[in-house]
Amino acid sequence: MPASLTEHMLGDIIAENQELALHNHQHFNESGCFAVNLSSAPGAGKTSLLEKSLPFLSKESSCAVIEGDMIGELDAERLRKHGVEVFQINTGKACHLDAQMVARLLHIKNMRNVDFLFIENVGNLVCPARFPLGEHKRVVLLSVSEGDDKPLKYPAILQHADVVLLTKCDLLPYVDFDLPLAIDRIHKLNPGATCIAVSAKNGRGIEDWLHWLREEEIKVLARIHH
Ligand SMILES: Nc1nc2c(ncn2[C@@H]2O[C@H](COP(=O)(O)OP(=O)(O)OP(=O)(O)O)[C@@H](O)[C@H]2O)c(=O)[nH]1
Ligand SMILES: [Mg+2]
């Protein structure tokens, strides 16, 4: 197939996704539910971050998770142990969630009783950048074991991020990862992105991440109710 034709078809798919993402966004607004989309390469620590964060957030707010995985419910089972409602979406052969998958779920389950909805995308640093799901905020995780060159190699996903979490910082003494350089590279792509160094292992940065979430939720809810 000629490259231009493939690009044309992809353009249609992206336009359709955009429309459904807007529909999901309106649904989240009407439900008063703050929706956050988490993306990263496989294994960067999305589920571990949620395992660390949910016990704190659940004390004062109602939380739920949409768990995107190609097959299985491994991550969903990990998160259910923390007493939150988890909705599994299996994408089959698809390497990312799309807005239609989320829309189908929202037709069955409205999110009216949910304050924080986390959407854990399939591990992939490329495709989720082109498929918004209707979320209010986008979180990208980059683990220090992946290398500080990743912002140079995967710019699109970072350009769309509201917050970038530099994860597994407990491993910094053991890997060649220049944290200030990585943050500088992220800011060159996206000057407005908040960067937070975190570790789900020793808790570094978790308070800052939770503070960011709570502040953004307040701002989003104020905008919805205005
Ligand atoms: N040392 C260290 N290991 C971590 C940290 N966070 C996660 N890990 C480990 O990294 C591996 C992957 O973590 P997950 O939380 O499953 O990563 P994920 O991004 O959800 O993975 P996928 O959903 O498969 O893309 C596990 O073995 C975790 O124990 C961290 O802060 N420090
Ligand atoms: Mg996971």
Written description of the protein model:
With 226 residues, the chain is an alpha/beta fold. Strands 3-2-4-1-5-6-7 form a seven-stranded parallel sheet, sandwiched between helices. Helix 1 packs parallel to helix 4. The radius of gyration is 17 Å and the shape is globular. The site of guanosine-5'-triphosphate has 17 residues, from helix 2.
Quick structural summary:
45% of the residues lie in helices and 18% in strands. With 226 residues, the protein is of the alpha/beta class.
Topology:
Elements: H1 3-31, E1 34-40, H2 46-60, E2 63-69, H3 74-80, E3 85-90, H4 99-108, E4 116-120, E5 137-143, H5 150-153, H6 155-159, E6 163-167, H7 179-189, E7 194-197, H8 206-225
Parallel strand pairs: 1-4, 1-5, 2-3, 2-4, 5-6, 6-7
Helix pairs in contact: 1-4
Guanosine-5'-triphosphate is lined by residues 40, 42-48, 75, 123, 167-168, 170-171, 199-201.
